[in-house]
Every structure is written in structure tokens, then in C-alpha cells.
């Protein structure tokens, strides 16, 4: 009678298998026995289909091998509980189960991965040297030593970091904590010197062999108001922001006296300059544009106004902590002749230069006109020559029967004669006794009354 259930025995078992094991790798050897006989002792073993393992019958009876049937991936599933079922063929059938625990061991098959790629950081200038300014972070899906990551900055063959403009930065400019990825700046950033730069950080695991990956880090330096305005004009010879301007007394209101020019190395609001008039001898005479720095007269000068005025201009930026500079302008009111003396000399020089230009221009125009007239005369002469040739050909046409006189040439001895008259026929002869000076023509009278003979 089928009164004995199959018995499952694990004869050899490795509870840990590397994740890079090939399909068909043996995990365990299983022996199945049933004390019944015949069909009651015939046992069939099976395992679930949703696992990457399978039972393979052995050459020996009632022996099975537990093998891998597909690649393993520890990062997806690191362990399996496999239930093996043994069932006999008796009626009614009896069965038994046995569960084994299989662990998939890690292999260094994953590179470190950074949380961001690329990294972008904004750092305000004037940071403390040696302090951490930002950090990068990578993780590894492996475990144990395969997931232990160290960081270092990737440097080229010259051991330098390059900024985006291609300039070289010292290797000691930045450093990285190899354990946690904190980036340290070993000197203070200066926006006016360096606005942006780029470098790469490498993360390497501790596996065998080690795997690594790198990430690009973009750093933008943010400006802060650390530069005071610089006065460009007025500046005297000793370097102080002071200048002298002379204007004629007869100028009207709105006359531009001068313009205070300045710049700030900062940007944005930190570099936006405003001008203000701090001190002036007469507030009714001069006005200052707060945005452009232009100084203009507010009214005309009178005889009672002083001849010299001192203006103190304050130039300040719009930073949170505003920085400023001052300039002094001395305005001297002079008589018109004195004010325009220098300008007259300059105007005379410009006039002489203008006269020279006019002279050369007249020569050029005259040359072009002469060449044009010569060209017209040559064209007319060529046209007349062509007309004469055409007329001669027309008069010598043998078939012409008009009323114009006809000419022929006649030679007697060393002399050459030309006979002119109406069209002659071949029968025309020289009259006898005329000493060869009278040509007798046939009588061809017409209404036009042509001559009938020509005396040579």
C-alpha cells in the first residue's frame, strides 16, 4: 500500500552563489527516496517556475541537481527561498516538500553613479580659504567593499585644472575629501578675476578590479559688492579726481559743462552708479544728471556771479553695502574771447586741412573732366571718319544713276588728273585738238543741267 511519503535529502549544498554564475551552475544535489515499491515508490520532483533555478535529473536514480537556469542579478534579488516538492505516483498520491535558502553573493559589476550629472554650483566670491564650498556624491549598487567609494579630482598631464576660457589654474586651487566628496577651495574666489570654471571629479569603488566613473562640475562665481567706483574723469596729473573746466560767461541755460565718467568692476546692482552733487558754491547755477554724470548750467551767468565755482560730486554704487568715490570739478567762468581762443586755433587748423582737401578734390575733378572731353572728341573724329568712307563707297557705286557728279582719275605722263562731271559712259573720249585737256561726253541733257565737258 502507498503508505509512505517521499523523503527529500540535500546531499550537497552551497547556500551562496555568485551573481555572475553562468546558467547551469550547480547549487545543490538532492536525493529523493520512497520506501514503497512499484508505482507507489516512483517519485517525481519539481520546483517553482518563477525562479531562475531548475531541477535536473542525475544519472543515478532518484538523484537531482539544483542548477541555475538564467543569469542572476544580486542588485535585483539577493536571495531565494526555493521549495522542492517530491510526489509519488501512488493512489492516492503522497508528497513532501523541502525549502532551501539560496543567497546570491555580490560581484563588482556596477560602477559608481553620481546623483547629478553634471553638477552646477554657485559660489559667492570672497569665500574663506580651506573651507568646503560644495560637495559631490556618488553611490554604488554593489555591497561591501565593492560599494566603498573614494573621490579625487581628474587632472590632465600637466596637473592643472582648466577654466572655460582655456586658462590654466594651479593644481592646488581645489581639493576634494576622498571619503565624502566635499570640495575645498584653498584660496578665495575673486569674481573680477575668475567668473566661471569647470573640472571633473572621479569616483572609484574598492572592488577587484575597481570600477570608476567621472562627473563634470561647473562652478559659477557670484559677484558681491567689493569694488568701489573708479573715477575716470576728471583726473588731474597727480592722480586725484579733480579737474578744471572753462566756459564762456555768455552761455545759456542747459549748456554742457562737462561729464563725470566712472566705472565699477562689479556687475548688476553692485556696478550700477549714481551721481549726486554734494557741494556747490551756487546751487542755482549748475545741475547734475544722477544717471549720466553730466553737469549743465541751470541759467545764464550774470555780472554778479563769481568767476570760479567748485563742485564736489559723489559717485556711489547700488550694492547692499554701498561703496562710493568723489570727484571735484572747478568751473571757471571767462570772457567769450578767452574761452574761444583755443577753439579758434583748432578751427584754423581744421580749416587749413579742409582747404588742402578741397584743392586735391578740384584737381581730381578737373582731370576727370579733361579726360571726358578728350574721349568725346576722339569718338566724334572716329564717327566722322566712318561717315566719309561710307560716302566714297556710295559715290563709286557703278550702278548709281543719280544726278550727282561722278569722278574718274586720268594719268598723262607724270601728271595725274581727276575728271569730275555727270555720270559718264564708257564711250566718253578726249576731244581732239584740246591738248588732252577737254573730255567730250555723250549728250545727256537733263532738267538738272549738268555740265557736258570738263576742262582739265
Task: Supply Rg.
Answer: 58 Å
Which range best describes the helical content: under 10%, 10-25%, 25-40%, 40-55%, 55-70% or over 70%? Answer: 10-25%
Shape: elongated
Round the mean pLDDT to the nearest integer and report it.
81
Q: What is the tally of helical segments?
A: 1
The top-level CATH class of the largest domain is Mainly Beta
Q: What is the correct CATH architecture of the largest domain?
A: Sandwich
- Largest sheet, order of strands side by side? 1-3-6-5
- Residue fraction in strands: 35-45%
Question: Quick one: biggest sheet?
Answer: 4 strands, antiparallel
Number of strands: 33
Which fold name corresponds to the CATH topology of the largest domain? Immunoglobulin-like
**What ranges have pLDDT less than 50 throughout 5 or more consecutive residues?**
390-405, 423-431, 433-439, 443-456
Keywords:
40% strand; Immunoglobulin-like; single chain; 4 domains; mainly beta; 456 residues; elongated; four-stranded mixed beta sheet; four-stranded antiparallel beta sheet
Task: Explain what the structure shows.
With 456 residues, the chain is mainly beta. It has four domains: 7-105, Cadherins (Immunoglobulin-like); 113-222, Immunoglobulin-like (Sandwich), CATH 2.60.40.60; 230-334, Sandwich (Immunoglobulin-like); 406-455, no CATH class. It contains one helix and 33 strands.
Brief description of this entry?
The chain is mostly beta strands. 13% of the residues lie in helices and 40% in strands.
Task: List strands and helices in order, with pairings.
Layout: E1 7-13, E2 16-18, E3 26-33, E4 43-47, E5 53-57, E6 63-68, E7 79-88, E8 95-105, E9 113-114, E10 119-124, E11 132-135, E12 138-139, E13 149-154, E14 161-162, E15 168-169, E16 174-176, E17 182-185, E18 196-205, E19 212-222, E20 230-233, E21 242-248, E22 256-259, E23 261-263, E24 274-280, E25 286-288, E26 294-297, E27 308-316, E28 324-334, H1 336-395, E29 406-412, E30 415-421, E31 429-430, E32 438-440, E33 453-455
Amino acid at each position: 500500500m502507498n503508505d509512505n511519503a517521499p523523503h527529500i535529502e540535500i546531499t550537497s549544498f552551497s547556500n551562496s552563489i555568485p551573481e555572475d554564475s553562468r546558467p547551469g551552475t550547480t547549487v545543490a544535489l538532492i536525493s529523493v527516496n520512497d520506501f514503497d515499491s512499484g508505482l507507489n515508490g516512483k517519485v517525481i520532483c519539481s520546483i517553482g517556475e518563477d525562479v531562475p533555478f531548475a531541477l535536473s535529473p542525475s544519472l543515478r536514480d532518484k538523484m537531482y541537481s539544483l542548477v541555475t537556469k538564467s543569469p542572476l542579478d544580486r542588485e535585483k534579488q539577493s536571495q531565494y527561498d526555493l521549495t522542492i516538492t517530491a510526489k509519488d505516483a501512488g493512489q492516492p498520491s503522497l508528497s513532501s516538500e523541502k525549502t532551501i535558502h539560496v543567497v546570491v553573493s555580490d560581484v563588482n559589476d556596477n560602477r559608481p553613479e553620481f546623483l547629478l550629472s553634471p553638477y552646477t554650483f554657485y559660489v559667492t566670491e570672497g569665500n574663506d580659504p580651506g573651507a568646503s564650498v560644495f560637495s559631490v556624491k556618488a553611490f554604488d549598487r554593489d555591497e561591501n567593499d565593492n560599494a566603498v567609494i573614494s573621490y579625487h579630482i581628474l587632472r590632465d598631464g600637466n596637473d592643472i585644472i582648466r577654466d572655460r576660457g582655456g586658462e590654466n589654474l594651479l593644481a592646488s586651487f581645489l581639493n576634494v575629501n576622498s571619503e565624502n566628496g566635499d570640495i575645498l577651495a584653498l584660496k578665495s574666489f575673486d569674481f573680477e578675476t575668475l567668473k566661471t570654471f569647470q573640472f571633473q571629479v572621479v569616483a572609484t569603488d574598492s572592488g577587484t578590479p575597481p570600477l570608476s566613473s567621472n562627473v563634470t562640475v561647473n562652478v559659477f562665481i557670484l559677484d558681491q559688492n567689493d569694488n568701489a567706483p573708479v573715477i575716470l574723469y576728471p583726473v588731474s596729473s597727480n592722480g586725484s579726481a579733480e579737474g578744471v573746466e572753462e566756459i564762456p560767461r555768455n552761455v545759456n541755460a542747459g549748456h554742457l559743462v562737462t561729464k563725470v565718467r566712472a566705472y565699477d568692476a562689479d556687475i548688476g546692482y553692485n556696478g550700477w552708479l549714481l551721481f549726486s552733487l554734494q557741494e556747490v558754491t551756487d546751487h542755482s547755477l549748475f545741475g547734475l544728471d544722477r544717471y549720466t554724470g553730466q553737469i549743465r548750467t541751470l541759467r545764464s551767468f550774470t555780472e554778479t556771479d563769481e568767476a570760479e565755482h567748485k563742485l564736489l560730486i559723489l559717485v556711489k554704487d547700488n550694492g547692499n553695502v554701498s561703496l562710493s568715490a568723489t570727484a571735484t570739478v572747478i568751473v571757471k567762468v571767462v570772457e567769450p574771447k578767452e574761452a574761444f581762443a583755443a577753439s579758434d586755433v583748432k578751427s584754423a587748423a581744421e580749416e587749413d586741412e579742409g582747404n588742402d582737401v578741397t584743392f586735391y578734390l578740384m584737381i581730381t575733378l578737373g582731370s576727370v573732366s579733361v579726360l571726358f572731353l578728350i574721349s568725346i572728341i576722339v569718338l566724334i573724329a572716329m564717327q566722322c571718319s566712318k561717315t566719309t568712307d561710307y560716302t566714297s563707297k556710295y559715290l563709286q557705286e557703278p550702278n548709281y544713276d543719280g544726278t550727282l557728279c561722278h569722278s574718274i582719275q586720268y594719268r598723262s605722263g607724270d601728271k595725274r588728273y581727276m575728271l569730275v562731271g555727270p555720270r559718264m559712259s564708257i564711250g566718253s573720249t578726249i576731244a581732239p585738238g584740246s591738248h588732252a585737256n577737254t573730255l567730250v561726253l555723250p549728250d545727256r541733257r537733263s532738267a538738272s543741267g549738268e555740265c557736258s565737258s570738263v576742262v582739265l
